[in-house]
Amino acid sequence: MKTQATRVGSVSDHRSTADSELGAKVVSQPAPSPHAGGQPILSARGVRKIYRTGSHDVEALRGVDLDIGAGELMMVMGPSGNGKTTLLNCLSGLDEIDEGTVHVDGEEIHSMADAKRTQHRAERMGFVFQSFNLIPVFSAIENVEIPLLVGGATAKVARVKARDMLDRVGLGDRGGHRPTELSGGEQQRVAIARALVSEPAIVWADEPTGNLDSHTAEAVLELLGEVHDAGQTLVIVTHDRSIGARGQRLVQVRDGSIAYDGPPTILENA
Amino acid sequence: MVILIVISLILLAVPLHDLVRRPTFRRLAIRNVLRRKTEAAIVVLGAALGTAIITAAFITGNSFDQSIRNIAKTDLGPIDIGVEIEDATEVAQVRDAVVGDGLPGTDGVLSSVSIGTSVVHPDAPGGQRAEPQSRITEFDIDEARDFGGRPDDTGLAGVEAIGEGETVIVQRLARTLDAEVGDQLTVFAYGQEIPLTVTAITPTRGLMGSAEMVVVPGTIEGVLATAGPGAADARPPSGTVLISNNGGIFDGANGSDAIVDEVVDRVEAFDGVEVGPWKQELIEDAEATGTELSTLFTGIGSFSVIAGILLLVNLFVMLAEERKTEMGMLRAVGLKRNHLTRSFVLEGAAYAALSAVVGAIGGIAVGWGIVQATQSIFADDDGVLDFTLAIRPETLVVGGLVGFVIAGVTAWLTSLRISGLNIISAIRDLPNPRSASRRLRSLVAGVAGVALGVLLTVIGYGNPVAVLLMMGPPIALLSAITLISRFLPRRPVVLVLAGLALVYGATVFQVFPEQMEDGDIEVFVVMGVVLTAAAVAIVTALDKFWGRMISASGGALAPRLALAYPLNRLFRTGLLLGMFSLVIFTMTFITALDGTFSGQGPTFARDLAGGYDMQVRSNPANPITVEDLEGQPGVERVATIQRGFPELRPAGTPEEDSEGWAIAGINDAFLEGGVPLLTERDPAYGSDVAAYEAVLADPSLIIVNTFLGGDDGGPDSGSDIEPGDQLILRDPVSARETEMTVAGVYGGDFVFFGSFASAEAVQTHLDISFPSRHLVKVADGLDAQEVAADLTGRFIANGGDAETFTDAVNEEVQAQSGFFSLMRGYLGLGLLIGIAGLAVVMVRAVRERRRQIGMLRAMGVTSPTVRGAFLAESGFIALQGIIIGVALGLVTSWSVITSSDSFGDEELSFTVPWLALVLIVAIPLVAVIASTVVPAMRAASIRPAAALRIAD
Ligand SMILES: Nc1ncnc2c1ncn2[C@@H]1O[C@H](COP(=O)(O)OP(=O)(O)O)[C@@H](O)[C@H]1O
Ligand SMILES: [Mg+2]
User: Which of B245, B792, B796, B945 has its Cβ near the most Cβ atoms within 10 Å?
Assistant: First the structure.
């Protein structure tokens, strides 16, 4: 774990000491309760999300309350179509909500104007999706640079940091390659590098291994594990029990509500 | 037409078969068309514009043809053949000789005598009205009415015979004079005033169109009898025997040749008689002019059409890329490659067919616009040609078919290319792998291209065929790229070979001046394609340069995104660039020519004027004399010109090669104060003046205009006639021929001097003894224009018309400029294709990249940045295309203007029309960006959550 931490650990180098401490605390706790870890980095209350389609409305989130502690590794599980992705989108501010509040670092993100929320997202969040969503006309390194450039870094600084980050995900020598020239696992690693490079407070991963074979998936999960070990807050949506079991905390979503919130040990019993 | 129908049927055969017999293809194609209705509509519209452009070119030709043919109705009617008789007193005898015991194949022979006059309506309702250039004609109205057997065609149906002092006038003249039946008109001829009362006004048709004012026979003789001594210097009355062939106005002209031969035999005994198949010549002229204009507009339009083809290819490639995955799936589930092609072809055929119909109809609108514009440009010109829109059904069919064939063939070829995709790479959305067979195919294509290029070059050089020589070397060079880049790095190979092609295209007129001489508009079209293709190849090979520029520019994301997409799809980008640069190239070229000509106006006037300020024309039957003019205030000096209308041809060529070309007989006074500038002269003369002096001294010397002997319209229409050449000058009346030696060549002739010879030479060679023009120098300090206006007003009775050289040149330059503007407007349609095309491409791009945009937004890229990236992307492509086009256009026009004698031997100094260029750059750029605003806004408003969800 020490070696792993050195590989990805410097992710937290630039973080505030408070964050690092929090992270360290979380890691040190063997089975944290939902609200452990002191102050939650994200706090959602009564979040409702209704998809309005022509004929009928789908209530995808039915008043969700959820706190995410800094440095937590949270797994979100549930059957397909029950609202996992919706939950992620609404908590991260990618999507609008119909009712409720979501505070991140004490700020309510849904009352922000789009521009402000976008900027907030750029500073505080990273995303990894099932399909890797790399920009096909950018090389791997250029993809990784994007969040840095969005954050206002100069081209030179961005290049250096992006190269570092690619190194850390083991793709240091593939920086010049286009996404189409990389395997699925490699593409997802680039995507993870991209999600992490700006050192966001929370990384959201929606079925990050869904498009990968089990072997490649394992490598990606290991990488995410390292990220977490380094103190990063990580929310991973998955429908795979074996992946769910790796978290510190498990949230199960059923029909738009949180059906379970606690240690992932229940997965072993089932 | 038959060929077009056959090709169309071949193109349609497979799609039609599939449409009826293959429900799967049919469903696939129809669904695909309907899937994106707006875009399908724009694709159809883009292709339809091309068709409209072609159709409009044909319609313009039709309209000219038809308008000139209309003259057959308005000014000839039943007249098919005219026998002109110099000595009007012989008219009756000639008529008898022509009729003899009956002239087979004809249904009417009529004799007439006429003189040029000016006519005034002193009591017109709004004050005096005048027509300085009219005529009175004598013939027997009763006889004339039945001439040719159809009174309606003569214009004289229902018109009663007239008596002395009475006249029947044609409507056209009545309108000018604001005259009605019963009004009193005054006609001026041979220094006398003849009062005439209007007894009838006839439609502008048939005999009346050319007769203008009919008077009772004997009137002219009476005028001559009482004329003063001055009448001896005026042109005597001319007699004409008019012949109507069997048949109607148009079909009657067909039998003219045999009848002309017969008539020529019958009038052999008379001197000074010229027999001409007037109607036939007019119809041939109409057809030639119509075809010429069709060709010109088709040529200019083909730039736009090629742009349209590039757009179609681009859209098809995009279409294929968008459907790559699903096409891969279809292939995987067992659809053969050939089936894929056919479903594409079916779709393409649907677009092509629809666009052909829409385009042909749109062509009417465009044609109408051209006709309107042309009419207003040439409205000042005498108003002889009443230019009206003429649409022939077969024109629409041909235009539509041409459009269909072009779009159809494009669809076929693109489909063949894109269906050759690899299943796996298609499903995984990867680029096609470089297979061995692919390499082999490109090798074969490269070798074939080089061979073809070399072959075309050899043929083009040897024969010579300008257009082949223009395309041969570039084809070879560009084909060689694929071959040589097997062994050497591609980028430098492209830069060198495409660079060579570019240089060749831009300098071919200097390198092969002789071989390129006989080229026509198609040479310019090929040149445009060659230059833009080479330039686009170079620019796309410079993509690395842009990459470096971005890196150097810092981290701004919008420009980075804006450049990344175009630079990663070089084929598609190349098509877009080609589309823009081709049209802009042509626009710039035309604008530069326009600017150069317009800017040269004062120079042209100075070069032509010699020692005079204006020319004064008058009615030959009532001419202004030198003494009249010299007595006028402000007139310092007068020179008289004896004009003649001989035919000229180089010695040793057959008589058919003769060209009718006016000649100006000059005297000592002409040389005073300067002479029209010579562009070439016999080295025997030390100066231009010396050459003119020699011409005055030696009646066998002639100075010709640079356009004599050139074929008009081509890129190189300058003549081959050089000082020292021998020309045959033929008098068409007496058929007498005289050999002349060219002493010099002069440039732009804006007042129709024609050639120059001594007055004595013109009199002896052409039997002309009356002056017809004067040149006037105004006293220092006076405004030539004011003096000219003054003189025109003063000599109304003589049909006086004074025009300064400056005005004459300006009028011509303006008309030319107007024509250039028309061409630009017409090309603007091509630009429309480019702008609409780029807009569609951007709309498609937004959809293609939805998910990527969603991801960018998730990463915190703001929506203004997304919008900016799209605007910058289209702006970048357009600007690149525009810059390529402008640069090529300037270089080429500079090269053509300064080095070739395409525009005569006149020395032209190249003028860059800066303002116009700014517009050429700014308007399309703004239009492109404006048309990208909608897709860019759409991209910016993409919600990340929704976009990222699609097909997850
Ligand atoms: N854009 C949408 N419009 C309408 N319904 C939607 C939309 N997105 C998701 N849904 C519905 O919302 C529910 C939750 O979807 P989602 O959050 O994607 O579930 P999960 O990620 O757990 O599979 C599903 O019933 C789905 O059909
Ligand atoms: Mg989901």
Answer: B245
Q: Which residue of B has its CA nearest to A129?
A: B948
Cβ <8 Å between A115 and B943: no
Amino acid at the residue B270: F
Per the CB < 8 A criterion, the answer to whether A208 and A193 are in contact is no
Q: How far is the CA of B360 from the centre of ligand 1 (A)?
A: 49
Q: What is the percentage of chain B residues whose pLDDT exceeds 90?
A: 13
Lowest mean pLDDT: which of B161-175, B334-348, B820-834?
B334-348
pLDDT tens, residue by residue, B136-169: 999 998 888 888 888 888 888 888 889 889 999 9
The shortest CB-CB distance from B952 to any of A118, A126, A131 is to A131
Q: Is B334 exposed, middle or buried (0-12, 13-18, 19+ CB in 10 A)?
A: exposed
Question: Residues in chain A with pLDDT < 70?
Answer: 1-38, 269-270
What distance in angstroms lies between residue A83's CA and the mean position of ligand 2's atoms? 7
Residue B854 contacts A, CB cutoff 8 Å: yes
How large is the ipTM? 0.85
Question: Domain limits of chain A?
Answer: 39-265
Residues with Cβ within 8 Å of B588's Cβ and at least 6 positions away in sequence, in order, are B885, B886, B888, B889, B890, B893, B917, B920
Residue by residue, DSSP assigns A98-134 as SEEEEEETTEESTTS-HHHHHHHHHHHEEEE-SS---
pLDDT at B908 over 70: no
pLDDT at position B713: 38
CB-CB neighbors (< 8 A) of B554 in chain A = 154-155
Task: Indicate whether B117 pLDDT > 70.
Answer: yes
CA A66 – CA A46 distance, rounded (Å): 9
User: Which residues of chain A make contact with B944, given a CB cutoff of 8 A?
Assistant: 94-95
Distance CA B819, CA B803 (A): 22
Answer whether B551 touches A (CB < 8 Å): yes
User: A168-177, B2-11, B107-116, B920-929: which range is least confident on average?
Assistant: B2-11
Lowest-confidence region among A92-106, A152-166, B738-752, B876-890? B738-752
Q: Where are the domains of chain B?
A: 1-74+282-428, 81-276, 434-541, 543-599+811-952, 602-810
The pTM (predicted TM-score) of the whole model is 0.80
Burial (0-12, 13-18, 19+ Cβ within 10 Å), B182: exposed
What pLDDT shows up at residue B717? 41
* Nearest-neighbour CA in chain A from B569: distance (Å): 9
φ/ψ (deg, to 5) at B288: -65, -45
The residue in chain A having the minimum alpha-carbon distance to the alpha carbon of residue B560 is A138
What sections of B463-542 are H helices per DSSP?
466-484, 490-511, 521-541
What pLDDT shows up at residue B745?
A: 86
Nearest partner of A69 among A45, A99, A94, A38, judged by Cα: A38
CATH level 3 topology of A39-265:
Rossmann fold (3.40.50)
Residue ranges around ligand 1 (CB below 6 Å): A 51, 53, 58, 60, 78, 80-86; B 946
Q: Read off φ and ψ for residue B107, nearest 5 degrees.
A: -130, 20
Q: Determine the pLDDT at residue A97.
A: 93
B295 in helix, strand or coil?
helix
Q: Determine the Cα–Cα distance for residues A82 and A253; give it in Å rounded to an integer.
A: 6
How sure is the predictor about B673, in pLDDT bands with cuts at 50, 70 and 90?
A: confident
